[in-house]
TrEMBL record:
Keyword Hydrolase: yes
Family statement: Belongs to the peptidase C19 family.
Gene of this entry: 20216988
Protein name listed in UniProt: Ubiquitin carboxyl-terminal hydrolase
A GO CC term assigned to this protein in UniProt: nucleus
Keywords: Hydrolase, Protease, Thiol protease, Ubl conjugation pathway
Source organism per UniProt: Helobdella robusta
């Protein structure tokens, strides 16, 4: 099930984040492919994560996160060794740094960048739509995201917070919008929808704010589900056309305990992707993306827990992975596979609307043909490939 990560002094934000992210099967798969691909002579954030994941799953003692801590200012330039950082900030820096690694030295525009493996795993696109209240003409803008930040104070559940996030914002009687059709300033509404769904949907429940004197925290339980369907929050002309693609399963949670951002303690709950099996009278570890075994990871200690405990958590970050309902019957658990090297980039931009072929790649990313997806190992035999 993997081991804990020792606290080197205010490093629990690293431990909690890493314990979640390395257990996401599609990301494990990507890390495994990277080790043969990396050509950089300098610090590589992806290699660092790959080594961390391997030692986390193979060590018998808690691992020491020296490499991450020692390179913290390369991961996020404002981060300092010994300082308690925000796990959400650390996660975004980590994803950005891994993304930068894949496009290092390449002169490509932002759109091409979004076809890298990290983007394919973690990026979704938000659509913000403004509707003129006079002529009803709409205009759309699209923006890539690594996570969606929801107001913990606005709802008692993740669904409620998502509804709040996607609700139309009425700007009252103010004529603030220059409408191209009306050729004048008009009243307008603005609302967000998820236009292209990421393979890994990371939700932040924003619990920190600033009062006149100090930072404060919204400490309340926001309910969340093990299985999340986001079909109510996707654009009607976007991914909603494929309802089977809106289903996600929870793989990890980062919890913050304490009263403010600069203090307190982080720990995590994560699904153990490895299960013990018996073969020929001996026990061995096998990866199983359907594993339901939840782990409680708190610095050096990792122990088995259950959903009844997990669901009570005061979640700060939630890691959901897309479930592939279409081809799930083809997914085998045997760790045998034909794997080709990942490609860092493809030469054509990713389509805003995924094709059927991409649909088959979605979910845990292990199961089927991935010919159109850059940076992900191509699997053609219906099996998945573990990190080992
Ligand atoms: Zn590397
Ligand atoms: Zn108008």
């Amino acid at each position: 099930m993997g081991v804990g990560i020792r606290n080197l002094g205010n490093t629990c934000f690293i431990a909690a984040t890493v314990q979640c992210i390395v257990r996401i099967p599609i990301f494990m798969n990507f890390l495994n492919g990277h080790k043969n691909e990396c050509k950089t002579g300098k610090f590589c954030c992806i290699c660092m994560m790959q080594r961390t994941a391997v030692s986390l799953f193979y060590s018998t003692e808690p691992i020491v996160p020296k490499e991450i801590v020692g390179n913290i200012s390369l991961i996020g330039e404002h981060m300092q060794y010994g300082k308690q950082e925000d796990a959400h900030d650390f996660l975004l820096c980590l994803l950005n740094e891994m993304q930068n690694q894949l496009v290092l030295g390449l002169k490509v525009d932002q759109f091409i960048e979004r076809t890298s493996a990290i983007s394919k795993i973690f990026n979704g696109f938000l659509r913000s739509q403004i509707i003129c209240q006079h002529c009803r003409t709409s205009s759309n803008n699209y923006e890539a995201f690594f996570n969606i930040s929801l107001e913990a104070g606005s709802a008692d559940s993740v669904h409620g917070a998502l509804r709040h996030f996607c609700a139309a914002e009425d700007m009252g009687n103010e004529r603030w919008y220059s409408c191209d059709t009306c050729k004048s300033k008009q009243r307008a509404t603005k609302h967000f929808t998820i236009h292209q769904m990421p393979n890994v949907l990371i939700l932040q429940l924003k619990r920190y704010g600033l009062s006149n004197t100090d930072g404060y925290k919204i400490s309340k339980h926001v309910t969340f589900e093990e299985h999340l369907d986001i079909s109510s929050y996707v654009s009607s002309d976007g991914d909603a056309s494929r309802p089977s693609q809106t289903k996600y399963r929870l793989h990890g949670i980062v919890v913050h305990q304490g009263y403010s951002l600069g203090s307190g303690h982080y720990y995590a709950y994560a699904v153990d992707p490895r299960v013990l099996s018996h073969k020929n009278g001996t026990e061995f570890n096998q990866f199983n993306q359907y594993s339901k075994r939840w782990l409680y990871a708190n610095d050096s200690s990792v122990s088995v827990t259950d959903w009844e405990n997990v669901k009570k958590a005061e979640a700060y970050l939630l890691f959901y992975a897309k479930v592939n309902t279409v081809n799930s019957h083809k997914i085998a658990t045997s760790p045998t596979s034909t794997v080709t090297k990942p490609v860092s980039l493809i030469s054509t931009p990713a389509p805003m609307h995924a094709t059927d072929e991409e649909q088959s790649f979605s979910g845990f990313g292990f199961s089927m043909s991935m010919k159109k997806v850059a940076g992900i190992n191509k699997h053609t035999d219906g099996t998945f490939y573990p990190i080992i």
